Amino acid sequence: MKDPLISEDMLHAYVDRQLPAEERRDVEQALSTDREMHAQAVTWQHQNDALHALFDPVLDEPMPARLLPQAAVVPPGSAWSGNGYWRVAAGIAIAVVSGMAGWSLHGLHGSERVASIPVFAQQAAIAHVVFSPDMRRPVEVGADQEAQLVTWLSKRTGVAMHPPKLGAAGYQLVGGRLLPGQHGPVAQFMYEDVSGQRLTLYISTDQKENSDTAFRFAREGKVNVFYWIDGHQGYALSAGIDRPALAEIAHLVYAQLEAKSQQSP
């Protein structure tokens, strides 16, 4: 950001509508002349909107019976009773993920339905929502440095990483990043088509041994996810495209990963 009077914290507060009126006017004036700052504010707003779309449906759901206190007496209508408790919890989840971006994805459970899918697939959907709208830095290492990206992610995760080639499906590699998983680091590869539509492949390396590689499907807000587990590795492909189209790409990804694994010594 070029304007020294507008800090990153101020811009975050502006996007979150937490600035006093006078400071809001200062930020808006800076945004009108600074295209880079304006683009960053728009990106953060899109991330906030996507996170709310993912978590807001939880706000009015009743709290699961298994989480209700057995002995505690909670005054009816208080913030911690029934739906009020769940609303507070969901609000905290949104605030945490918004504030910490990809670094607070561990252990977030949006609802009973979400909790029924593996944690890594749930984290994959959230990571997709957080990073795919980012126009300035959607990845840590770009596709122009693919060799370095593969070496870095392979070293950090302890597993040879091979980003699939999805040109046949109309998608090109944007790059990738390292994220925290449930028990260790995970990799995220991002792809984009000519229209700007993005999809992400999330690879976790700390799953329980599993030889059932059947695809599973989940929908989190507007994000569709196909996920599967092969040995100790969990894969989740996330995108805002329809289920049949994503299923075709998932099969393409699986075929390439399987071919690579058979080539490995």
Using the 3D structure, state the CATH architecture of the largest domain: 2-Layer Sandwich
The fraction of residues in strands falls at 15-25%
Would you tell me the overall average pLDDT?
Answer: 77
CATH H-level superfamily title of the largest domain: MucB/RseB, C-terminal domain
Termini gap: 48 Å
Order of helical and strand elements: HHHHHHEHEEEEEEH
Structural notes for this entry:
- The protein has 265 residues and is an alpha+beta fold.
- It has 2 domains: 97 residues, no CATH class; 146 residues, 2-Layer Sandwich (Phosphorylase Kinase, domain 1), CATH 3.30.200.
- Helices cover 42% and strands 17% of the residues.
- The protein has 8 helices and 7 strands, in the order H-H-H-H-H-H-E-H-E-E-E-E-E-E-H.
- The chain has a 7-stranded antiparallel β-sheet with strand order 1-2-3-4-7-6-5, with helices on both faces.
- Helix 2 crosses helix 3.
- The longest helix has 21 residues.
